[in-house]
Design goal:
The structure holds two protein chains of two kinds. Chain A is of the alpha+beta class. Chain A is built from eleven helices and 28 strands. Chain B is mainly alpha-helical. Classes of the chains: A alpha+beta, B mainly alpha.
Chain lengths: 636, 291
């Protein structure tokens, strides 16, 4: 048996043991269908019993939390994330502006988590919670990041088991987690250990609305008690379900993950399908059959596609929750083996691909978040930017130029949207920055989401799409379960593309790297005739300037009056370059980047210059028609 | 048959219909021009493909151009707001001229036609203002309760009731706003036929509508409903023509398709207005309204 086999056997035994002193002992989990050897070592594992009071929207929970000290130092304290306290008042870090940034909703009914007891032994023993800090370090208004001193140090390689009794009051849904009527979306709901770093420190942080995830991998064994009429979807695999009086108890086991989320609603419709060996469970409101079919179609494409590019999806299940309209702010979120999607009932018929885009994006997070588990608050672009690139690349492969909108009228691609959105921010700040340095949701979505994706797409168009996918695949596969940093990403690109492009990528990500190619001059004149009978010739030139620190190769086309083109390749290393023309027809236009490979170019409009600008009949015709229709509609 | 004779006149006035269409196109150009200049200022014509590149599938340069033109487009909006009353006035003039021509028996004498049009125009404007306010008020009255009902029912039965409430709100709003528009056309017809005041025309128009609401609605709907599929078909046809590809004929075909739609819409409107004129001229003021 290999070392990994012993680890797997150890995990198996640990998970099979009931919690000490537990009155309702969970049964042993069913054998995993996925090879345990493909899963990470369990560092922070949780066994939780939770009962939902669906009328009070409150969860009573007991948890045993086991931490393996994988660091080089003894631990004399731990940090616990009490995420749900983000919704206890309007003064927390999450809610300081009085409204949640994504949904714009203000707090109507508060949510919070109370630790009733925290000890090293399940019953008896010192209540460590009495010695815990009262609030987040340096932030008296926030209680989402709590330091808990330990009575005895835990040596490297040793395990620590904490027992917690807690109560989680869900907020009326503001964003991500909470309730709306009978619907419950329950994420970030239990006391959760901060990520233990190699140097013995904890990567702890208050719950920030723009970045929240960073945790150790572990095994989750969670038993949930809900009213019998409710249907439940959760991270991991359901291993048992039983009726207990008026309630039902469902038990989920999720191995090799770093979080656990669930949803409960009495009106869920459930649909299941096996995609490439993965049991996909879709939970959605009645009436959303067409939208669910669209979601399923996206998963049928995305699961095998992402598995091929970024390494196999290693878990046996994937649960997709489509919240009802009243709970829309719970949509578009990622948790390990559980994603939430969203969108109205009619979008599937209108040509807009938002449902596919959201599903693809959250699915991509199963790799760029779920399996890599990088530090989101520190480097949100590693989660959001790479997931945005992955979903847009996949969606473009699927739908081509109508990846964002494919209904009547002009089609729209996701790249057009991301490019424009990223260009709005320009190089206002570096992409590779912590969430705290972004001014708000727009800034983080422009830079960490869209600009990252646009940078990678630009590199793909220049150096080859397959090489970029290969580099990203190398990063995703080699860094799986290892909490990578931006340098790991750069290393993968260096290995695939070489030092030069990797250096430019580093500039683009870390140093506000931008580029703007501009045709600054075009000239044309008849060539001096050197002899009789010589055919009439013309000479000319164009000057192209490069602004910004990025040095990316580009093509320049000189276009003559008769439509003939002369193309030049420029490495973009100098600030400007002159391109000379000689031909039988006068030079008319100069155009940089005719194939629009440089999506990151600051201004695409100055890529062309003409000695005789053309007219714009198509534009005039279309605008005239639009105005006439408007006049017919609003006028007499 | 009431209205039949007048509809026949509408068909015999193709040049008047064409003139109304041209007036509308002129008014539309006045509205579109500031936006057009804003987009042209981005330098789109500097590229070899010029404006054809704006129509390339995927919309990369279209979105980029709109992004770059945004400050100028906001300014253009201000200019367009100043131009809009003039454009509406021109469109109203076209409509008055069209209705006067349809209502004129025999040969159309330009001087007489112009003088009757100019007499009707101020009352048309008065009707336009009054009915726009009424339609705006109706829209406002429908949106509030519909939104409230939607929010209250959302989450019940997976949102199915909320959907039903939303569709019901849209339906009630559309029907009532269209009914008001229909009554406005009847009032216009009364202005042309009787040269009465705005208030009297509105009162009589309501009475005419109440007499045969379903028949009038059917006549109006039969013509108005044809415009929407024409617009959609035109969109599909122009998509197929694909003006992003080379060849000036492509945009000429697109122009022809779009202008045919506008001309068709004007002709259908003329046909309905002939019916409206017929309905008001045959209205028996002594007869009770139908139930």
């Amino acid at each position: 048996m290999t070392a990994k086999g012993f680890v797997a056997l150890g995990l198996w035994c640990w998970l099979s043991l009931p919690a000490a002193g537990s009155s309702d002992r969970p049964r042993a989990p069913a054998p995993p269908s996925t090879s345990a050897a493909s899963l990470p070592r369990a560092v922070a594992s949780y066994r939780i019993h939770a009962a939902l009071d669906a009328e009070l929207h409150r969860i009573a929970g007991r948890a045993s939390i086991e931490l393996l000290n994988t660091s080089e130092k003894p631990l004399d304290h731990v940090f616990l994330h009490l995420y749900l306290n983000a919704f206890e008042s309007e003064h927390t870090l999450f809610m300081r502006k009085g409204r949640a940034p994504r949904s714009g909703r203000s707090l109507r009914r508060a949510g919070y988590i109370q630790i009733e007891r925290l000890s090293l032994a399940e019953s008896g023993g010192e209540n460590l919670w009495e010695r815990a800090a009262r609030h987040t370090p340096d932030d008296p208004d926030d209680r989402t990041d709590i330091r808990v001193p330990l009575p005895e140090p835990v040596a490297p390689g040793e395990r620590l088991t904490l027992f917690a009794r807690f109560s989680s009051q869900l907020p009326e849904l503001v964003e991500r987690s909470g309730y709306a009527g009978d619907f419950h979306m329950i994420g970030q709901w239990f006391p959760k250990l901060a990520k233990l770093e190699n140097d013995g420190s904890f990567a702890h942080f208050a719950y920030h609305p723009l970045g929240e995830f960073y945790a150790d991998f572990g095994d989750y064994d969670v038993t949930l008690r809900v009213p019998a009429a409710m249907r439940v979807g959760a991270s991991g695999r359901r291993v048992s379900e039983s009726i207990v009086g008026a309630d039902k108890e469902v038990r989920y086991v999720a191995r090799g993950v770093h979080d656990f989320a669930w949803s409960a609603w009495s009106e869920f419709v459930e649909r299941r399908e096996r995609i490439g060996g993965v049991e996909v469970v879709l939970l959605y409101p009645d009436g959303l059959e067409a939208a669910t079919a669209t979601t399923l179609e996206a998963l049928r494409l995305g699961l095998p596609y992402f598995s091929r590019l970024y390494g196999p999806y290693p878990y046996p299940t994937l649960t997709v929750v489509h919240p009802p309209v009243a709970a829309a702010p719970a949509g578009g979120m990622e948790y390990p083996t559980l994603i939430t999607t969203g969108g109205g009932r009619y979008q599937a018929y209108l040509g807009a691909r938002t449902l596919e885009a959201v599903t693809m994006h959250e699915l991509a997070h199963q790799w760029f978040y779920g399996l890599l588990a990088s530090n989101e608050p520190r480097f949100p672009f590693l989660d959001e930017g790479l997931a945005t690139f992955a979903d847009t690349e996949a969606q473009t492969r699927w739908f081509g130029d109508h990846s964002a909108y494919g209904g009547p009228g002009p089609t729209l691609s996701l790249w057009a949207i991301h490019r424009a959105w990223a260009a709005e921010a320009g190089a206002a700040g570096p992409i590779a920055a912590p969430v705290s340095s972004f001014s708000g949701l727009n800034a983080v979505s422009q830079l960490a989401y869209s600009r990252t994706a646009v940078v990678l797409e630009t590199f793909g168009r220049i150096y080859g799409q397959e090489r970029i996918l290969s580099a990203l695949g190398r990063y995703a596969k080699s860094e799986r379960f290892s909490h990578p940093t931006p340098s790991d990403l750069l290393e993968a690109f260096r290995a695939e593309l070489g030092d030069g492009p990797a250096r430019e990528l580093e500039r683009a990500l870390f140093e506000r790297g931008s580029v703007d190619y501009e045709v600054s001059q075009v000239a044309s004149a008849p060539a001096p005739q050197t002899g009789r009978g010589e055919a009439r010739a013309y000479v000319g030139h164009a000057v192209v300037r490069r602004r910004g620190p990025l040095r990316l190769p580009v093509r320049v086309d000189l276009v003559a009056e008769d439509g003939t083109r002369q193309s030049f390749d420029w490495d973009g290393k100098s600030d400007r370059r002159r391109f000379d023309y000689r031909g039988e027809s006068p030079l008319r236009h100069a155009l940089v980047d005719p194939e629009t490979r440089l999506l990151i170019d600051v201004n695409l409009a100055n890529n062309g210059a003409s000695l005789r600008p053309a007219s714009t009949p198509r534009l005039s015709e279309r605008m005239l028609y639009a105005a006439a229709l408007l006049l017919s509609w609003l006028g007499p | 048959m009431p209205g039949g004779k007048n509809e026949f006149r509408a068909r015999r006035r193709p040049f008047v219909i064409a003139a109304a269409w041209l007036l509308k196109v002129g008014a539309a150009y006045a509205l579109a021009a500031p936006f057009l200049r804003a987009v042209q200022a981005t330098g789109v014509a500097e590229r070899p493909g010029a404006d054809s590149e704006l129509f390339v599938p995927g919309g990369l340069l279209l979105v980029e151009t709109l992004r770059l033109a945004r400050p100028d487009l906001i300014l253009a909006l201000t200019t367009a707001a100043l131009v809009a009353p003039f454009a509406l006035l021109v469109a109203e003039l076209g409509l008055a001229a069209l209705m006067t021509a349809i209502a004129t028996p025999g040969r159309l004498v330009p001087e007489r036609w112009a003088s009757r049009t100019l007499v009707a125009l101020p009352r048309f404007i008065g009707l336009g203002v009054a009915f726009s306010l009424a339609q705006g008020g109706l829209a406002f009255a429908c949106i509030g309760p519909t939104a409230g009902l939607f929010a209250a029912l959302d989450g019940v039965q997976g949102g199915a009731y909320a959907d039903a409430a939303f569709l019901f709100g849209i339906l009630v709003g559309s029907v009532s706003i269209s009914a008001v528009g229909l009554i406005e056309d009847l009032a216009r017809a009364l202005v042309v036929v009787e040269q009465g005041s705005v208030v009297r025309s509105i009162g009589l128009a309501i009475a005419v509508f109440r007499k045969t609401p379903l028949r009038l609605a059917a006549q109006w709907l039969a013509r108005s409903a044809l415009v929407l599929p024409a617009i959609l078909l035109a969109a599909l046809a122009v998509d197929a023509v694909d003006v992003s590809r080379t060849g000036a004929w492509r945009w000429l075909v697109a122009l022809a398709i779009h202008q045919t739609v506008l001309l068709l819409a004007t002709a259908l409107r003329a046909s309905w207005l002939a019916r409206a004129l017929g309905a008001v001229s045959s209205y028996d003021r002594a007869a009770p309204a139908s139930r």
